[in-house]
Amino acid sequence: MSPSVSPNPYKPDTAISDEINFFGREEIFHNVARILKRPQAHAVFLYGQPCVGKSSVLLQFAERLPNPPFLSIYFNLTGRAGQPINQVLFDLAATIAAKVDVPPPEQADFENDLEAFQHRFLPTVYQTLSDDEHRLVFLLDEFDILDEAARQNLPRTAAVHTFYPYLHQLMTIERRPAFVLTAGRHMEGLSIDFLAAFKADRMYLISMLSPKAAQAIISQAEDKGVLHYDDDAVEYIKAITHNHPHLIQLICRYFFDQAVAQSSSDEPPADDAPLPTVTAKEIEESLPAILETSEDSFEYFWNQLPMEDRLVLSAIASQERPQATLSEATIISILEVAGLDPLLKAVTLSPQILADWKMLEQENGGYRFLIELLRRWVAT
User: Fold this and answer.
1) How would DSSP label each residue in 79-114?
2) Helical segments of 120-230, H only
3) Cβ atoms 140, 128 nearer than 8 A
4) What pLDDT, on a 0 to 100 scale, did the predictor assign at position 272?
5) Are 58 and 180 in contact (CB under 8 A)?
6) Are 89 and 122 in contact (CB under 8 A)?
7) Residue 158 buriedness (CB in 10 A; 0-12 / 13-18 / 19+)
8) What share of the chain is helix, strand, coil (3-state, %, to 5)?
9) Residues contacting 161, CB < 8 A, separation 6+
């Protein structure tokens, strides 16, 4: 395939559902599958910073968990906090029916009956499976949006108030299903009631990629015969992103698009011609353009963070020295000068949480950015 028509394999704003473009996380898959094989295990929590690949991991579970013994059902809860619980349960049933050979549910059966899902629909599914080999595994994405009850003015019938208590009851009564849940907040950011309801058998932090997986992502352009990164360029990308998958893809998407645009305006290269090569110097010089063209992606990333985390990152990025290390007292002082006193109580836990998430690192009693590309965007 010529570069002019090669599809860009770098899709930083899209969760990855196919195995071809997914790299790493083998240890997570192995450990979660091992836990789910235990009949007494019912819930696994996956959490981590925004855009680090939680949804992609969950979609991969839908493909990789062996069938049998598992039957995986992926269900995204984004945008469902304000929906009536009956609507959410109907949509969940419809998703299950599409994967299992059972008649699709009738919405009217769910409208005024909370028992429809557990006592009529699920037994039909179990009967269709007709054996004890299969275990339903609900892969519930963005589960922590259902912990927003105190922050939203929604009716008591909304899913934000009712869905996770319902699921907790389902976990308690129904021993057959298991749940893998993702959360975009640190555990300290979840309410006490939420954590009490869902005592997960295991919690896993989804963090940065291994160097090997990061290099595999970068090498996709060369695998497609479009672009080559020299060794220094590969190391530069890994260093400036700290192996964050989303940020790696932002950089690589830019250079892939540039290579395809250039090739479409040039004479077709000879079959034995070397691929265009990207150097570390070219990447450094292109960073302002990459930050500009990726503004929407960075804004989305930023808006997923709690306000207190954004304040801490902004305070540190405000310093002129790129590798500035700030103590908690200095961070608080900067925010006080900015007139943000009412928010300071919420800020106190953020530096340590951001360090746990691998967005900051601790050094000499202070905190500094671990991800240089993110620091540059915040500073800009």
Assistant:
1) T-TTSBHHHHHHHHHHHHHHHTTSPPPPHHHHHT-T
2) 122-129, 159-173, 192-197, 211-218, 220-223
3) no
4) 67
5) yes
6) no
7) buried
8) 55, 10, 35
9) 149, 154, 155
Which pair of structure tokens corresponds to residue 117? 């899902």
Q: Give which of 8, 36, 30, 10 is closest to 22, Cα–Cα.
A: 10
Instruction: Provide block-wise average pLDDT over 10 residues at a time, the chain (380 residues).
Output: 68 90 93 89 86 93 88 90 88 93 90 87 86 82 67 65 78 82 69 59 88 96 94 98 96 95 69 86 97 95 89 92 89 88 78 90 93 95
Contacts of 216 (CB under 8 A, 6+ apart): 23, 24
What is the Cβ-side half-sphere exposure of residue 270, based on CA atoms within 13 angstroms?
3
Per the CB < 8 A criterion, the answer to whether 123 and 177 are in contact is no
Give the strand pairing for 178-183 and 43-47: parallel
- The closest of 3, 150, 139, 4 to 71, measured between CA atoms, is 139
> Among all chains, which residue has been given the structure tokens 């976990």?
171
At 347 the pLDDT is 83
Residue 226 is given by DSSP the state: S
Question: Contact 69/136 with Cβ under 8 angstroms?
Answer: no
183's tokens: 């959360």
Residues in CB range of 181: below 8 A, 6 or more apart? 43, 44, 45, 46, 140, 143, 198, 200
